[in-house]
TrEMBL record:
It comes from Mycena indigotica. The chain crosses the membrane at residues 6-25, 174-193. GO terms for molecular function: heme binding; iron ion binding; monooxygenase activity; oxidoreductase activity, acting on paired donors, with incorporation or reduction of molecular oxygen. It comes from the Eukaryota. Pathway: Secondary metabolite biosynthesis. Its cofactor is heme. Keywords: Heme, Iron, Membrane, Metal-binding, Monooxygenase, Oxidoreductase, Transmembrane, Transmembrane helix. This is Cytochrome P450. Belongs to the cytochrome P450 family. The keyword Zinc-finger does not apply.
Amino acid sequence: MSMDFPYIGSLTVYLTAGLILVYYANQVSRAWRKNPTTLPYPPGPRPLPIIGNIRQIPTTFPWLTYREWGRQYGPMIHFRAYNDHLIIVNSAKIADDLFEKRSRIYSDRPDYPMLNLMGWEFNFAFMRYGDNWRQHRRLMHQFLRLAAVPAYHPVQVKKSHDLLRIFLSHPKDFYVHLQTYAAAIIMATVYGYDIAPVGDPFVSLAQDAMHRMGQGTIPAAIPVNMFPWLRHFPGWLPGFGFQQFCADTRLITAKMRDEPYEFAKKQLIEEHDSTSMVAKMIESGKTEVQLQKDVAGLAYGAGADTTFATMASFVLLMATHPEVQKKAQAEIDAVLGSHRLPEFSDKAQLPYVEALCREVLRWMPLVPLSPSRKTTEDDIYEGYFIPKGTSIVPNLWAMCQDEAIYPEPEKFKPERFLTEDGRVTTDPLLNPLAFGHGRRSCVGRHLAEDSVWIAMASLLTVYNFGKAKDASGNEIEIPFQFSDGLIIHSEPFECSITPRSEIAIALIEGTAEKNG
């Protein structure tokens, strides 16, 4: 016998309506607590109830989407992921105002639980702002500050000469050679270790660890970063396979820190080689071993991939911009003649080459989205309210493509970094943005800049770059395709690399004897 309860439907409606009212009352209350002012948040896409804009947050090539949002909403874009506030900064001026002039508020980082699970908690680039971060940064700055970098010039020159020779014998494999060059400089300066030309175990370890680390820093793509409590669920549950990934990564990351460090320590004891960064740390006896390992491990991770990415862009741009290449070579020839390779002492006399380096960094910023900052207190900027705990993401890609600062930004024009009288500009807005802002700017900037400068100048001195040709003699167009991720680089491509002259070949071959 069935019984009808006609009031049940009405009761359900009332309960549902009541729950909705309670939810929205709670949301309004939370919003008021987070925004006690009557000022608006910066403009942005309209959020959905509860989840906010989570469905709109891009997980591939996000800097491109954020740049398009900027065209619609302005240079500062606000949106929400559930109850978390996020702001994208597309303007170099706003970045300078917030990260330089208000660095006290804008130097913290959000938590990245995934990085901790993967063994990357030592990466001070992602550490919360505080004493531990200061300790790590201070130690790295000691060895990579502007005044310290000239000590590494002999290594950089030697490795650039190695690059010239390998280009001569195996030009088609230039992409791999550039990876080797970038890794060789870092491993030599940090650990005093000369890597194998192919398949070096330390380099393979670091590349694997860095690739995995990059996958753990995207808040929208990694649920654990948004819901830290997920890390407590066992890996055998469906959807929790990241636990095994993290466990494997933790082992790889530990090896990346420990094994090269032990090599450098052994070199110091057995061969008294104290030229490397690690050897100097050990000899000073002022820091704990774990701190030394942390800083050395991060120096490789942060330096090798970015140097390679810059050099790959350089080759691509030289092969597709012969007029720029010829202009740089003319300047080099006028200063050096035809019988020697560039040295760091030539840098001031080669302003066009310096401008070319800067334009490579602008045209393809290595880290298009700089890691998020986190506000440590409420702030008001240009009439907009920015609550405490907001994640602020600098979109370096958009800043480098800003038509107001860089007219015709899609074009490769080194001249934009030169004054009318041919000197390198000192305009602060035209400083390379690739190395970040404020207290979180890249500590290894000076080493990286010198590594790419000596390589670019040396390659331009002795080589011509152009498009490869097919069997019929037709030029093969070079696709402008780039990877996705924390650090981006051009996808492998074909090009022509040939010595400029017989004299150039003699210069290249002479480096073998010069470097012993």
